[in-house]
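I have been asked to look over a protein record a colleague put together. Thanks in advance; the entry in question is below.
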Amino acid sequence: MAFNWYPGHMAKARRTMTEDIKLIDIIVELVDARAPFSTRNPDIESLGAGKERIIVLNKADLAEESITRDWITHYTEDGLYTLALNSKDKSGMQSVLKTIDEAAGKKRERDLKRGIKNRPVRLMVAGIPNVGKSTFINALCKKNVAKTGNKPGVTKGKQWISVRRGVDLMDTPGILWPRIDDLNSQINLALIGSMNDEAINRDDLLTELIRVLNSKAQSVLQERYGIDQNDDTAVFIEKVAKSRSMMKSGGLFDTERALEYLFTAFRGGELGRITLETP
């Protein structure tokens, strides 16, 4: 089934973005390195036609390195400037600035031919919710200029930010496209926290998470929780609860707490580096 999740502020943000993008030289699009396909927004793809593009595979510390390299090759071959980083590690920002300079080369050449000197390069940082845009902006600008949070929809309005002399940046709220038809994208977005958990049936989401963990993190499951690959969902969650001493009155396992813990551990990388999509 197609899923529609388009809050009012996102619809307004898209309309505003349509106008603002006329002012922009380069679009910096952040995607989650664990799900680069699902976290790319086709709205940004169409709105940014004709603009220089930089794809930032953010949260690369949570993704499998070899697959991230494959994604970099994939997007580079498509003619997009591409790099991977963890925005919380500010040392990666020098690579971002170098890439911005490379992407701005044609624009600066055009300005010089027209006799325009010292006109700032204008960037737009865009991406769907919870891909780390605000953390990225704060690291790039070396100061806290954008609000951060671990829930979709923290950034509410447009901001102009000076990155350095000659480079200005426009922040935009994260936006999802109005209709998500692909079931795998729906699930992947929910798994990594780019959609509210309530958007997908919780049991279905848990089943998919367990499938991913059994495929990608079996040794961790066995070592930490004593989980066998053949354990059904109920046994799986009970073993997690038991290993974490999550009990309710009457000696029953607190499976709801165990479930919340499991999702948090996965999203935070505690169960290892896991990528959900390959090129």
Remarks:
- The first strand starts at residue 3 and ends at 4.
- The chain has two domains: 3-179, 201-267.
- The mean pLDDT is 84.
